[in-house]
Amino acid sequence: MKGTLLLSSAIFLLQGVCSCPEKCFCHTSSNSVDCSHQGLAEIPPNLPPETLTLLLQDNQIHQLPVLAFQSVPQLRTLNLSNNSLSNLSPEAFYGLQHLQVLNLTQNPLLSLESRLFHALPKLRELDLSSNNISHLPTSLGEFWENLTMFAVQGNQLQHLDRALLESMPGVKLLFLKDNNWKCNCHLLGLKLWLEKFIYEGGTTDGIICGSPDTWKGKDLLTIPHELYQPCPHSSPDLASSSQDQHPGSEEVPKSSENHSLGQQDLLECEAKPKPRPASLRHAVATVVITGVVCGIVCLMMLTAAIYGCTYAAITAQCNGGPLSQTSDSGKKGGKELFDSSPA
C-alpha cells in the first residue's frame, strides 16, 4: 500500500516537472512561469494550463502564431517586452479573456489593429512604449471599459484621434511623451480631450510638440485654442470631378493640381501664431486694469478739488478781517464827505 502511494506521488511529481517547458522556471505557489533571458525564438510549448503570469521578456521572439496562448486560458499577466515583434496578429491573443496586464515595450512594432483590442476585453494595463508605432486605430468601434493605463511614449506618433481615447472611458493613466507630435489642427481635438481628462482627475505626462518649428518643444496644453485654424475639408466638387474624369492625358495635370491643393491645405492647417490672441482672460484683465486706472485718476482729481477748496477757504478766512475794516473806513469817509457838502 505504501509502495503504491509512493509510486503515485512520484508519478504526480514527475508530471508536474514535465509540464514546465524547457529553459523556463515554474513557480507553483504563484502559478507563474518565468522564461525570460533564455534566447527563445518562439513561444515555448507545454505551458501549465493553470499559469496566471507568463514572463517572456528579453528573448528573440519575432512572431506570434494564431492562438499562441491557447494552452493558458487563465493568464492574467503577459510580459513580451524587449523581443523582436514587428507585427501582431489579433488572432494571437484569442482565448485570453482574463488577461489584465500586457507589456509590449521595446519591440519594433509599427502599428496595431483595432481587432487586437477586441480580443482582450478584461485588459487593464497596456504598455506599448519604446516601439516604432507610427499610427494607431482611429477608433475601436466599441468601449474598452476595463482599461485604466495606456502607454505609448517613445514611439513615432504624429497624431492620435480623440475617438480612440473616448473608447477608453476608464483610463486614468496616459503616457504620451517622446513622440513626433505634429501640433496642427488635427491635434486640436486631442488637446480638448486632454484638458477634460486632467480636469476629471486623470494623469498624463503631456504632449511635447515635435513640429512645426513654431511650437517645437512646447507642451500642447499650453498653446491657446485661438492659434489653431479649422481643418480644411475636402471639396465634394473636386472629389466628384476626379471620379467622373476618364483616364487620359488630362489626368496627370489634375493629379498634380490636387497634390498642390493638398499641400496648401496642410499649410493652412498649421497653427498660425498671432501677436495678441483674443482671449476672455485677456479681455477681463484689460477691463480690470482700465477700471483701476480710472479709479486712481478719479481719486487724484477728487483730492485736488478738496485741496483747492480747502486752500481757498483758508485764504479767504485769513484775508477776511482787513477787508472788512477797509470797507468800513471807506463807508465812513464817504458819509463825512456827504455831510460836509453844501445843502
From TrEMBL:
<keyword id="KW-0732">Signal</keyword>
<feature type="compositionally biased region" description="Basic and acidic residues">
    <location>
        <begin position="329"/>
        <end position="343"/>
    </location>
</feature>
<dbReference type="GO" id="GO:0051965">
    <property type="term" value="P:positive regulation of synapse assembly"/>
</dbReference>
<dbReference type="Pfam" id="PF13855">
    <property type="entry name" value="LRR_8"/>
</dbReference>
<feature type="domain" description="LRRCT">
    <location>
        <begin position="179"/>
        <end position="232"/>
    </location>
</feature>
<feature type="region of interest" description="Disordered">
    <location>
        <begin position="323"/>
        <end position="343"/>
    </location>
</feature>
<keyword id="KW-0433">Leucine-rich repeat</keyword>
<keyword id="KW-0677">Repeat</keyword>
<keyword id="KW-1133">Transmembrane helix</keyword>
<keyword id="KW-0812">Transmembrane</keyword>
<feature type="region of interest" description="Disordered">
    <location>
        <begin position="233"/>
        <end position="259"/>
    </location>
</feature>
<feature type="domain" description="LRRNT">
    <location>
        <begin position="19"/>
        <end position="53"/>
    </location>
</feature>
<dbReference type="InterPro" id="IPR032675">
    <property type="entry name" value="LRR_dom_sf"/>
</dbReference>
<dbReference type="InterPro" id="IPR000372">
    <property type="entry name" value="LRRNT"/>
</dbReference>
<dbReference type="GO" id="GO:0007409">
    <property type="term" value="P:axonogenesis"/>
</dbReference>
<feature type="transmembrane region" description="Helical">
    <location>
        <begin position="283"/>
        <end position="307"/>
    </location>
</feature>
<feature type="compositionally biased region" description="Polar residues">
    <location>
        <begin position="237"/>
        <end position="246"/>
    </location>
</feature>
<feature type="compositionally biased region" description="Basic and acidic residues">
    <location>
        <begin position="247"/>
        <end position="257"/>
    </location>
</feature>
<protein>
    <recommendedName>
        <fullName>Leucine-rich repeat and transmembrane domain-containing protein 1</fullName>
    </recommendedName>
</protein>
<dbReference type="Pfam" id="PF00560">
    <property type="entry name" value="LRR_1"/>
</dbReference>
<feature type="signal peptide">
    <location>
        <begin position="1"/>
        <end position="19"/>
    </location>
</feature>
<dbReference type="GO" id="GO:0016020">
    <property type="term" value="C:membrane"/>
</dbReference>
<comment type="similarity">
    <text>Belongs to the SLITRK family.</text>
</comment>
<keyword id="KW-0472">Membrane</keyword>
<dbReference type="InterPro" id="IPR000483">
    <property type="entry name" value="Cys-rich_flank_reg_C"/>
</dbReference>
<dbReference type="InterPro" id="IPR001611">
    <property type="entry name" value="Leu-rich_rpt"/>
</dbReference>
<keyword id="KW-0325">Glycoprotein</keyword>
<dbReference type="InterPro" id="IPR003591">
    <property type="entry name" value="Leu-rich_rpt_typical-subtyp"/>
</dbReference>
